[in-house]
Design brief:
With 113 residues, the protein is α+β, with helices and mostly antiparallel strands. It is built from three helices and four strands, in the order αααββββ. Helix content is 38%, strand content 23%. The protein is elongated, with a radius of gyration of 18 Å. Keywords: Membrane, Transmembrane, Transmembrane helix.
Length: 113
């Protein structure tokens, strides 16, 4: 009987953690949609001309950097295999106004290992 209790507790903690992380991701995406609201093509035009030449495949919300900034990663395929963090160009926006603060050419971490 004790093993079932332990397994149930572990499952409960896992479910709680998945729910918490999922809600945080949803909240970040909702904040981005409300403040910035740009699709992939709309983000490409914000880049310097040298970075606009890449073929971008998706937008990934980066983990929160600070409460005042929203970070997104524009993932591109450079033809090389990768593990973890995909090759990307990061964009940082003001969380209150949605204004572009900086372009991070070397990319940002997206929380993948």
């Amino acid at each position: 009987m004790d093993w079932w209790f332990v397994l149930g507790a572990i499952a409960g903690v896992g479910l709680f953690e998945m729910t918490r992380v999922g809600y945080a991701r949803w909240r970040r995406r909702r904040e981005y949609d409300d403040r910035v609201g740009r699709d992939l093509a709309g983000l490409v035009v914000l880049l310097p001309p040298a970075l606009q030449q890449r073929v971008y495949t998706e937008i990934v919300m980066a983990p929160p950097y600070t409460g005042e900034r929203i970070r997104v990663a524009m993932v591109y395929d450079d033809g090389r295999p990768f593990r973890g963090n995909p090759p990307n160009v990061g964009l940082e926006f003001d969380a209150n106004t949605g204004e572009l603060l900086s372009v991070i050419a070397e990319g940002v971490g997206v929380g993948r290992k």
